[in-house]
Amino acid sequence: MSNDTSSPKVNYLNNDYSIKSWLLTVDHKRIAILYLIAISFFFLVGGLMAVLFRFELATPQGDLVSAETYNKLFTMHGMVMVFFFLIPSVPAVLGNFLLPLMIGAKDVAFPRLNLASWYIYMLGGTLTIFAAISGGIDTGWTFYTPYSSTYANTAVVTAGIAVFITGFSSILTGLNFLVTIHKLRAPGLTWSRLPLFVWAHYATSIIMLLGTPVLAITVALLAVERGLGFGIFDPNLGGDPVLFQHLFWFYSHPAVYIMILPSMGVISEIVAAFCRKRVFGYTFVAASSLAIAVIGFFVWGHHLFLSSQSVFAGMVFSFLSYIVAVPSAIKVFNWTATMFRGSISWETPMLYVLGFIGLFSIGGLTGLFLANLAVDVHLHDTYFVVAHFHYVMVGGVIMGYMGGLHYYWPKITGRMYNEFWAKISFLLIFVGFNLTFLPQFVLGQLGMPRRYYFYDAEWQTLNVLSSAGASVLGIGYLLPVIYFLYSLKNGKIASQNPWGAKGLEWEVADTPPDPHNFHEIPVVTEEAYAYAKEAH
Amino acid sequence: MSTSSESKHPALADHFIDLKQQYDSAQLGMWSFLLTEVMMFGGLFMCYIVARSQFLEAFVDASHHLSIGLGGFNTIVLIVSSLTMAMAVHSASEGHQKKTFKFLLGTLFLGAVFLGVKYIEYSAKIEHNNIPGDNFEWHGVANPANVELFFGLYFVMTGLHAAHMIIGGGLLIWLMVLNHKGRFSKEFSTPVELVGLYWHFVDIVWIFLFPLLYLIGRHSA
Predict the structure, then answer these.
(1) How confident is the model at residue B133 (pLDDT cuts 50, 70, 90)?
(2) Touching check for A500 and chain B: CB below 8 Å?
(3) What pLDDT sits at residue B219?
(4) Per the omega criterion (within 30 degrees of 0), is the bond before A512 cis?
């Protein structure tokens, strides 16, 4: 470990500066950076679309954009955010960077497949942008048939192919993680000593492997139906549109857990580091990740309560949807218990943990309202649903992602970000987020349907609040771009372990890491989060 | 874990400790990939089950117009190709370069025969306008729209399977190049083994497709 050298040591960032060394790299750390750049771009694109239609919704009439454009905007927002930001965000950036470091490996199991996954992602992304400018797509990100297969006259096939292709990038990431965690752990790193971040990614990779291929074949069938007029989903041709919904949600509900589980892993890491305590109930937190992955595959029918699904199936899916909330609740309780009597410090990553716990709890609990058969009849397809899943996606996933970015920024770049501006940014995000989405719960309860271009004048106040919140949220997300980029040249040089955290990635690997991660393969002799035991 | 040799084997990648770790990772990776394939074909089979249960009569009617002779012949061809593939895996692991080549070539040949027969079958369907779409024609007893659904599934399922065969053919050629360069030995023949797994999987998919599309319809009639 170096702490005195003035000339920088060789690390993965300065060992080669050529463009080629980046675009053809098989180093998991550099691939993570490639993903970070690409994902930030798509986040910006998806975010700008949201700002645009929130402006539109500031008035009850449709006046800023046309109705067709509005439909395209919310569709592209959903598609870009889900497939090109939320799903790859934590796994492809932080997971790629950290998994090998956390388990004491030199790289992921299949480095070239890892690079291939980035190129596949970029190909899918490029096609999506192409779809956006060659007619856009207006089906909603859910591509429901028969509208998508028969009636929409937008670039459905192009967008479908883009989703199909991007799916393989996700599959490759999942496959790489699964094998890496199984086969590349350092000597002494038993399953019960794995950091919870690794457990979360293990569970995630299982969902990626089992779910994504089903989505792939579903959108492929949709494209075939649209292109060749073969009617597996078209009722006019004997097909069944509800079958599409079943297949679509068989992937797309577990996909929610692909998004949230890795963020939960980040939260476990941060909460231990900033409370100076081992995560309370380690085994339960690890097992709950697996439980979510398994049970998550059996709840998709709660999207079909009003789609002619039988009442019995509805009851079963309703029950299972309640059950899947239990492992999430276990995590929330355990993080809270970890904080109890911990010596908490209040740097930005910890603020994101608190943000996550609060907002994810609201998101999760409102999910129970929707899992209730009778209540869902009233709330289905209203803004209540929109608010619910944004509390999980933005309040949960992105809070965890942002927290992780701040926490690992010194590890990734060797520089400290500006703590003051980071706190301001957190505050803006937290306030802006709640201002945007709390009113939407009320709007949904009052009956405002989602995806509508105009609305009753009596709902304007709440909509204006929401639009104002979206602007604050937007500024909150732009600030980190500025202070992160600024820190690359001007930030304080990070010490080896600026947070004094436990784990191979902080204690053994250099900051920033060596191109080969470790100078020699580490041997693990203690459990995860072995912070000094406190007297009780 | 055993460190078998002091000097590094040329096939051993930097980030693995030894060939055993590399081999285990490759195996697990391939099996995981095959799992994703099961899920992908599984979605299609699900569609088939739903459609068949709704339109049994049309599916029975349509399946009578598939050639059991050609389908059965292809089934035998694929099973034999799995045998030659298994022999290729074995001889590669024994380090027999020439034998490996022969078995790989044999497998490739049988794969090509399968695709050739498939081409004949598809041509007949095209001739009779059994391709779903505006020109679809059906003169049987069942509702043409539902028969169209059967043929849609038939083409998607066998088409996806054929695409896997074509990819498999490419992989076999790649293996023959590696084999020609003398890359396989008793210590290292992982690529042959992995392609073998893939080839058997594609074979097994057909073992399910053949009865579903060609056979069970007749039995119900």
Answers:
(1) confident
(2) no
(3) 65
(4) yes
pLDDT in tens, A166-214: 999 999 999 999 999 999 999 999 999 999 999 999 999 999 999 999 9
Q: Does A242 touch chain B (CB under 8 A)?
A: no
Classified by CATH at the fold level, domain A26-507 comes out as Cytochrome C Oxidase; Chain A (1.20.210)
Does the B19-220 domain belong in CATH 3.30.360.10?
no
Please state, in angstroms and rounded to a whole number, the distance separating the CA atoms of residues A430 and A391. 11
Touching check for B10 and chain A: CB below 8 Å?
Answer: no
Kindly report whether the peptide bond that precedes residue A410 is cis, defined as omega within 30 degrees of 0.
Answer: no
Whole-number Å distance between alpha carbons of A533 and A441:
43
Ranges in chain A, pLDDT < 50: 1-5, 534-536
Does any CB of chain B come closer than 8 Å to the CB of residue A112? no
Q: Scan for tokens 């790489």, then name that residue.
A: A176
CA proximity to A274, closest of A364, A354, A180: A354
B220 Cβ under 8 Å from any chain A Cβ: no
Cβ atoms A490, A462 nearer than 8 A: no
Q: Give the domain ranges of chain A.
A: 26-507
Whole-number Å distance between alpha carbons of A484 and A314? 47
Question: How far apart are the CA of B105 and the nearest CA of chain A, in angstroms?
Answer: 28
A contacts of B28 (beta carbons < 8 Å): 178-179, 182-183
- List B residues 140-169 in contact with A (Cβ-Cβ < 8 A): 143, 145-146, 148-149, 151-153, 155-156
Burial A382-391 (b: 16+ CB within 10 A, else e): bbbbbbbbbb
**Distance between CA A463 and CA A467 in Å, rounded?**
6
Chain A residues closer than 8 Å to B25 by CB: 109-110, 179-180, 182-184
Measuring CA to CA, which residue among A323, A336, A401, A391 is closest to residue A361? A391
Contact A73, A52 (CB under 8 A): yes
Question: Cβ A231–B148 below 8 Å, yes or no?
Answer: yes
Instruction: Provide ipTM, 2 decimals.
Output: 0.93
Chain B CB within 8 Å of residue A514 CB = no
pLDDT in tens, B2-34: 444 457 889 999 899 999 999 999 999 999 999
Collect all residues of chain A within an 8 Å Cβ-Cβ radius of residue B40. 213-214, 216-217
Q: At what angle do helices B190-210 and B19-54 cross, to 10 degrees?
A: 10
The residues, any chain, with a CB within 8 Å of residue A286's CB and separated by 6 or more, are: A194, A196, A199
Residue A232 contacts B where some CB pair is shorter than 8 Å = yes
Calpha distance A335→A340 (Å, rounded): 9
In chain B, % of residues over pLDDT 70: 96
Q: Could you tell me which chain A residue has the CA closest to the CA of B134?
A: A229
The nearest alpha carbon in chain B to A170 belongs to: B36
